[in-house]
From TrEMBL:
<comment type="pathway">
    <text>Carbohydrate degradation; pentose phosphate pathway; D-ribose 5-phosphate from D-ribulose 5-phosphate (non-oxidative stage): step 1/1.</text>
</comment>
<feature type="active site" description="Proton acceptor">
    <location>
        <position position="103"/>
    </location>
</feature>
<feature type="binding site">
    <location>
        <position position="121"/>
    </location>
    <ligand>
        <name>substrate</name>
    </ligand>
</feature>
<dbReference type="GO" id="GO:0009052">
    <property type="term" value="P:pentose-phosphate shunt, non-oxidative branch"/>
</dbReference>
<comment type="function">
    <text>Catalyzes the reversible conversion of ribose-5-phosphate to ribulose 5-phosphate.</text>
</comment>
<keyword id="KW-0413">Isomerase</keyword>
<comment type="similarity">
    <text>Belongs to the ribose 5-phosphate isomerase family.</text>
</comment>
<protein>
    <recommendedName>
        <fullName>Ribose-5-phosphate isomerase A</fullName>
        <ecNumber>5.3.1.6</ecNumber>
    </recommendedName>
</protein>
<dbReference type="InterPro" id="IPR037171">
    <property type="entry name" value="NagB/RpiA_transferase-like"/>
</dbReference>
<dbReference type="GO" id="GO:0006014">
    <property type="term" value="P:D-ribose metabolic process"/>
</dbReference>
<dbReference type="InterPro" id="IPR020672">
    <property type="entry name" value="Ribose5P_isomerase_typA_subgr"/>
</dbReference>
<comment type="subunit">
    <text>Homodimer.</text>
</comment>
<dbReference type="InterPro" id="IPR004788">
    <property type="entry name" value="Ribose5P_isomerase_type_A"/>
</dbReference>
<feature type="binding site">
    <location>
        <begin position="94"/>
        <end position="97"/>
    </location>
    <ligand>
        <name>substrate</name>
    </ligand>
</feature>
<dbReference type="GO" id="GO:0004751">
    <property type="term" value="F:ribose-5-phosphate isomerase activity"/>
</dbReference>
<dbReference type="GO" id="GO:0005829">
    <property type="term" value="C:cytosol"/>
</dbReference>
<feature type="binding site">
    <location>
        <begin position="28"/>
        <end position="31"/>
    </location>
    <ligand>
        <name>substrate</name>
    </ligand>
</feature>
Amino acid sequence: MTQDELKQQAALRALDHVIEGSIVGVGTGSTANFFIDGLAGMKDRIIGAVASSEASARRLAGHGIRLFDMNEVDDLPVYVDGADEIDASLAMIKGGGGAQTREKIVAAVARKFVCICDASKKVERLGRFPLPIEVIPMARAQVARQLTLLGGRPVLREGFVTDNGNQILDIHGLDIADPAGLEIQLDGIVGIVTSGLFAKRGADVLLLATPTGVQSIERS
Ligand SMILES: O=C[C@H](O)[C@H](O)[C@H](O)COP(=O)(O)O
């Protein structure tokens, strides 16, 4: 089975978590795209969706799914999104597509975060995937210095601008023994908009697609 087939299996399983007659929070990336395509099959049974990126908004609109601005929505039963890495506590690294700021906002509103992944994303310890950090452009050098002091090796994502008009530093080599502690530390660095660590608000359910089936793992 290919990695894309596994992503699709996890994504389609997430449709079971969608509440009919509700607005659905929708993530970003190749796995989330499979979810969007699946959601199109039940678009008449939902009110619409909130997207975590311009790319997902375009894909949702292309399927004729009604889009809502996050500011119009005060109750979001479910948010479905992929991850770059996820550990046993369901803490994640996200932002491989640079969308972590809007993703974290939608996830913060959602009552349930359903993470959809193929088995390659599950890790013992977060950090092999470089941690994406969205930065205000004028703060890039200051933030890079702070991240170097923390033991990381910041690399600017060349030619990339986020949906919010900012830049991404990918931090290599960080030792992420305490994901929530590091997330809090990063939140305190002036110039960082959002780190790609999702530990304070991790996933509630992981749908992990393996060659022998999709495992559903709940946060303990
Ligand atoms: O910014 C992108 C998001 O955090 C994605 O959810 C993450 O990068 C996983 O993407 P994919 O499903 O394409 O591996």
